[in-house]
Amino acid sequence: MKGPLFYSKILLFGEYGIIKDSKGLSIPYNFYNGALKMDKNPSEEAQQSNKNLQRFTEYLSKIDKQLVVFDIEALQNDVSTGMYFDSSIPQGYGVGSSGALVAAIYDKYAQNKITVLENLTREKLLTLKAIFAQMESFFHGKSSGLDPLNSYLSLPILINSQENIEATGIPTQSSNGQGAVFLLDSGVIGETAPMVSIFMENMKQEGFRNMLKNQFIKHTDACVDDFLKGDIKSLFKNTKQLSKVVLNHFKPMIPAQFHELWKKGIETNDYYLKLCGSGGGGYILGFTPDIKKAENALKDYKLEVVYNF
């Protein structure tokens, strides 16, 4: 048995802000993927994944039936015969490893599921997002449901606000463009839950809330608009501002050894770094007007280009 593939995702803009109704833009990243599988001789990783699926199945059996009904019997049978999630998506890297798993389980076991082929009204997208948020909270404590939604639909998703999301098109990549979005491997695994709780703790302070609204969300929204319009000049201006705001106010989410590198990018304009997902490790997202310059400035690190301007 081998299920369909579900891809990783990259939240280009909106990390943390979407909790407080900023815009967001999430795109599928086909470099990594995962699928449900069974093997006669499972590896150690497969056995570990199977154990996680046992716990997840237990959790899904108690999920609100008004929201979603699963064929729990079929799921329990498959898990008891060794089903696991075979994935190349790195865990704790902010590219949606649990999201792809949630999408795969929903696709195979949900009854009366909303399929990718039907007319995806805003209402259906919000229903899917609510189901996925409930499912994924098993892994993170609190989830927006966005990662699994992206993985399930394999389409770019524009978040206008928590109650207003839509599948969207993004400008075609320019294969020989100098400008690029890239992933920088921090070499450290990030944990989502502790980062989110630091953020929630900060939200209790009025100064932090004001900064979020007047700076972070303002620049995030502008970046999303610029990206979708293909206004690259304005995009880099706003990404630079966003990078500054994150360095000044989200320090705990940036691994300490990257603080200087982050600052250097802002000062030289060779690249601008931002959080990829909740931060704390995993990938860091970079934007550069000139990928050659960025590669040179970051030559000690592993970069993966995900989009060319």
Quickly describe the structure:
It comes from Olleya aquimaris. With 309 residues, the chain is an alpha+beta fold.
Name the descriptors:
nucleotide-binding, globular, Mevalonate kinase, five-stranded antiparallel beta sheet, Alpha-Beta Plaits, alpha+beta, kinase, single chain, ATP-binding, 10 helices, Ribosomal Protein S5, domain 2, 309 residues, 9 strands, four-stranded antiparallel beta sheet
Topology:
Blueprint lengths: L5 E8 L10 E14 L6 H17 L11 H9 L3 E4 L9 H13 L12 H19 L5 H8 L3 E5 L2 E4 L12 E6 L6 H11 L3 H24 L2 H18 L9 H10 L3 E4 L7 E6 L2 H7 L5 E6 L1
Helix pairs in contact: 1-2, 3-4, 3-5, 4-5, 7-8, 8-9
CATH architecture of the largest domain: 2-Layer Sandwich
- Rg over CA atoms, rounded to whole Å, is 19 Å
The low-confidence parts are none
Report the β-strand fraction as a percent range.
15-25%
CATH topology of the largest domain: Ribosomal Protein S5, domain 2
Helix content: 40-55%
Q: What order do the helices and strands follow?
A: EEHHEHHHEEEHHHHEEHE
Describe the structure.
One of its GO terms (molecular function) is ATP binding. InterPro entries: GHMP_kinase_C_sf, GHMP_kinase_N_dom, HddA/FKP, Ribosomal_Su5_D2-typ_SF, Ribsml_uS5_D2-typ_fold_subgr. It comes from Olleya aquimaris. This is Mevalonate kinase. The chain has 309 residues and is an alpha+beta fold. Helix content is 44%, strand content 18%. It contains 10 helices and 9 strands. The protein is globular. The relative contact order is 0.16.
